[in-house]
Write a structure and sequence with these properties.
By secondary structure, this protein is an alpha/beta fold. The protein contains 11 helices and 15 strands. It has helices at about 15-30, 60-70, 85-95, 110-125, 165-175, 195-205, 240-245, 260-265, 300-310, 315-330, 335-349; strands at about 1-10, 10, 30-40, 40, 50-55, 75-80, 100-105, 130, 150, 180-185, 210-215, 230-235, 250, 270-275, 290-295.
């Protein structure tokens, strides 16, 4: 058996726990024993932990002790560039431990030059790189392409069965009385452009349509939003959030999309967004097939696309089926695991 350490920066978020559970079992079939290392797990985690787990404060001293005591064959880093990490990388190479970096590896505009230099330096040391999406290869130097692999970033939702007969029950639980509903579920943040969504909804003028806004609002974005048929539900997590998605009709996030598109597509919701800087998971959106992408800030067109999907039942069902097909192929958890397996087999050959 080949021992693998995966170093998870800070606390493991809720959504990663089922992913690590599945990845651990998947890799075991290929003789890889995976241990996840982090500083803790996000509070109120609702998921059972079925993977091997070590909790330590991430620093050079503790990682040195861990490497020497456990002697892993490979270390996978899900850690943003930090000063102590350079010493850790050199230590791993000194101990003849294979090194893999996992993530989007995409420098953001605010620090693109510096971060590009850092990533190139890391990639030169790495034995392999695992990316969130195929389109991110353009940010990796040509000289590193042969050791670059893709594990489509996704969630492990295979145990959840989208509801079909309980939609009205779910809606009544939250006091939602409208027949057709647009939903945004996630953190209420300025970069999500919630104001665009609210303005577009007010332009619809459809009596039977509702707008569901569910998620924590630490910035107070919703404080002054009061309008007919807008339902502000606060934070909703776990299977309850998936039930609420399944009871809705269209998902709209005008701002930066991340893993929420996986939840929405898995529950059969077409997605409408704006052409802004998105997370790698935007790869799942196929404009005009399973959702729409409109120009940034074009409220009129945003409203028009939402209206089409709410009123044209046949088109919405077509988009819904395409959304489910996309996430059950490109976004299936097995697709992500295959990327890890390919990278590990490459470095351990």
């Amino acid at each position: 058996m080949i021992n693998i350490l995966l170093i998870n920066e800070e606390n493991i978020p809720h959504y990663r726990v089922p992913v690590y559970n599945y990845l651990s079992e998947y890799l075991k079939k290929y003789q890889f024993i995976l241990t996840i290392v982090s500083e803790g797990i996000q509070e109120n985690n609702p998921h059972a932990i079925r993977f091997r787990y070590r909790e330590i404060h991430l620093c050079f001293t503790n990682l040195t002790r861990l490497f020497i005591n456990t002697r892993p064959d490979t270390v996978i880093f899900w850690v943003s560039p930090q000063l102590y990490m350079f010493a850790v990388l050199f230590l791993a190479k000194l101990l003849k431990i294979k090194v893999i970096h996992w993530g989007h590896r995409r420098p953001m505009p605010s620090n693109a030059f510096i971060k590009t230099l850092v990533y190139n330096f890391e990639h030169g040391i790495d034995d392999a790189v695992i990316l969130y999406a195929e389109h991110l290869r353009k940010y990796v130097c040509n000289c590193f392409q042969s050791k670059t692999f893709v594990a489509n970033n996704t969630l492990n939702l295979i145990t959840y069965k989208p509801l079909h007969l309980r939609k009205e029950k779910v809606k009544s639980k939250y006091g939602i009385f409208t027949r057709k509903n647009i939903i945004y579920l996630g953190r209420m943040q300025r970069r999500r452009r919630i104001d665009d969504l609210v303005q577009a909804f007010r332009m619809l003028n459809i009596e039977e349509a509702g707008l569901i806004l569910a998620g924590p609002d630490s910035e107070g974005i919703l404080n002054n939003i009061e309008s007919k048929n807008i339902f502000k539900l606060g934070p909703i997590y776990g299977e309850e959030s998936l039930d609420l998605l399944s009871a809705s009709d269209v998902y709209c996030l005008p701002g930066s999309i991340g893993l929420s598109i996986v939840d929405a597509f898995y529950c059969g919701l077409p997605v409408v967004t704006e052409n802004v800087i998105h997370g790698p998971e935007i790869m799942y959106l196929k404009d005009g097939i399973n959702g729409f992408m409109i120009p940034k800030g074009d409220i009129t067109q945003l409203a028009a696309k939402l209206k089409i999907l709410l009123t044209d039942d046949a088109l919405r069902e077509k988009f819904s089926q395409a959304a489910k097909n996309e996430i059950m192929t490109s976004g299936h958890i097995d697709r992500m695991c295959e990327g890890f397996r390919n990278a590990l087999q490459y470095v351990c050959k």
